[in-house]
Each structure stands twice: as C-alpha cells, then as structure tokens.
Amino acid sequence: MISQISQPRLKGYRFPRSIISYAVWAYHRFALSLRDVEDLLAERGVVVSHETIRAWVEKFGKKIAERVRATRRHPSDKWHLDEVVIMIRGKKHWLWRAVDSTGEVLDILVQTRRNARAARRFIARLVARWGKPRVIITDKLRSYGAALRKLALGVDHRAHKGLNNRIEGSHRPTRKREKIQGRFKSARQAQRFLSVHDETATLFRPRRHKMTASKYRHTRTAAFRRWIDCAAAMTA
Known about the structure:
InterPro entries: DDE_dom, IS_Transposase, RNaseH-like_sf, RNaseH_sf, Transpos_IS6. The chain is of the alpha/beta class and 236 residues long. It has 9 helices and 5 strands. A 5-stranded mixed β-sheet has the order 3-2-1-4-5, with helices on both faces. The model has no long low-confidence stretch (mean pLDDT 87).
C-alpha cells in the first residue's frame, strides 16, 4: 500500500500520509501488535518506534474510520444485535454490536450494564445513525424487547438464538485482539479501538467464501482505493 500513494507530509510530521495510513491499516487489518507493525515498516526501510505508531493509530485511526463510515452504502433493513462480555481492569463490561444481513458492522458500544436501559441506548444510537430497520433479530435477552417497546419503533422483533448466528462471527476478531493487547485498559480505549477495528474489518473482510477469485480481487482493490482516498483527506 505504501508504494501506491504519493502524498505530501502532514504538517509537523516527519513521514508522509502514505506511511502513517499504512501503519494504521496494518495494525487494524491484521492481528498485529504495535511492535509487529514497527518491524513491518523497518523491513521497508522506515525506522520508527512503536510508541510513534501508537500515537498515529490513536490520532488518525478514528479520522480515517469516520470517513470510511461516511462513504458506506446504506445497510440492509434487517439488523442483528448481540452483546458479549469483556473484562476491563477486572470489571465486567458489555460490548454491544449490530450487523446488517450482509454481515457489515453497523456500530458498537461499550457499556457497563446489560439491561433494558443499555439496550435502549444502543438501539436509539443505531436508529439515529442509520434510520429505522424493518426487522431486528436478537437473542432471547428480555432487555431488547423492553427497549423496543419503550422506543415504540414498530419494527418486527425476532428473538431467537438460532436466528442470530450472523453476528456471532463478528465477535471473533475482537476476542483475538483482546488477547493480543492483554485486555483493554479502559472502556474509552476499548470503544475507540473497536470502532476503528470494526470499520476496517467491514471494509477489508468481505464474505470471500461467496466470491469468485476475480470478484474478490476487484473488491479488495476498491477497498484499498477507498482507504487511500479517506487517508488523503486526514489532517494533523
């Protein structure tokens, strides 16, 4: 990806956008540590510390992800919602996630509760961003039903664990990254990281098993181009 971009340096930064966006992309696209990304760049002749890469990831990852999200197509009208527990400093938190019927992640939200109020907050956030869906599929957690009744959206709510397999695979990359990072340090850090991580995964991990080789290569090329365009617009 580095060789595909020729961009001026950001004001106050020693390296051009191409190097910074590549580091952010590699960190979020693959299950790599910051030191792994440091080694990848070193192999390409770019000598930079992992702490500098951390600063790039924290500052520019969110900006690129926001632009990627802004250019996404509108999701399908069938949503799958689920929540998984994550441990932060020895305390249980809940990661709420929603995907559409194609498996694209719509949003995530880290909360300390798994009740109707937390469910209502998450669903209201989704509707504010994407509009009202036709169908919402969840597991049998009663909080979803209570939240939907309170919001009075009038959507078709289907509560069945077997119908919600679509979203289960979306949690696996989170578990992998959680293990590599030695657990998240705070709810804010988890929210910030996973928002960028899920947006990157949505862009670069299409349902490859349902594509021909040529279709996948075309999709991957389009994803690279979109990432480059979004990175080109980032500012210091």
